[in-house]
Amino acid sequence: MKLLVINPNISDDVTALIESEAVRSAAPGTELVVRTAGHGVEYIETRFESLIAAGAVAEIIAEYSTESSTGGVDGVVVAAFGDPGMPALKELTDVPVIGITEAALCAAALQGHRFSIIAISDRIRPWYLDCVERFGLGGRLASIRSINESLNAIGSVQQDFKETLLALSRQAVAEDGADVVILAGAPLAGLARKLQGQIPVPVVDGISAGIRMAETVVALQSGPHRAGAFAPPPAKARRGLSENLDTALTAAQSAAHAAAPSH
Known about the structure:
CATH class of the largest domain: Alpha Beta
Radius of gyration: 18 Å
CATH topology of the largest domain: Rossmann fold
């Protein structure tokens, strides 16, 4: 199995954190291709920054979505909490595209009734709330707690705020009634392992959940979307797209047309 793991922000330090946790989480035999967004922002906190990131992620998926010099992939993991571009990116390719938010929420829902999200900034909270509600789990969200201090560097959030993140997690359990804690965002990748045993409920790491969920969905071999809400976009005139994106759209539309029932 070959998974494409995309960091939707431009921080190479965060990509290194993603790759380290992805390698630890992946099953033996799973090959990982880890890529960083070609344009965008250092880290994503807002809906608009997510919009920018979605385009960068789409370009990378398009590059790998057809058999070419890249060899193709079996699944994609969008490795930023908030899932930039999701669920729209599921329309672009035949392979499963899994966001770490939806993976973490599924993992949390399987382990408890109410969950809390621990985030790296106050500004990011409205966007995260949107994501939970879009996924239909707003009624099971106990709280979103976040760091309310300026970050020194996105790659060192874990080291700089480890005790704060631990305290927020414990408060979510004791004060908000969380059965599960989700450590949100790629900058916190691997922190759940470091805090093991220090939080009295299950703790979900988004990157780990994303990798394991992607492996599971790929292995299910459920088949691609050819109709319904996630079918490829219909063919129509377009201009100004990159060669990769244009080719990926054409391939997706051709596959959907070929699969359509004849009359």
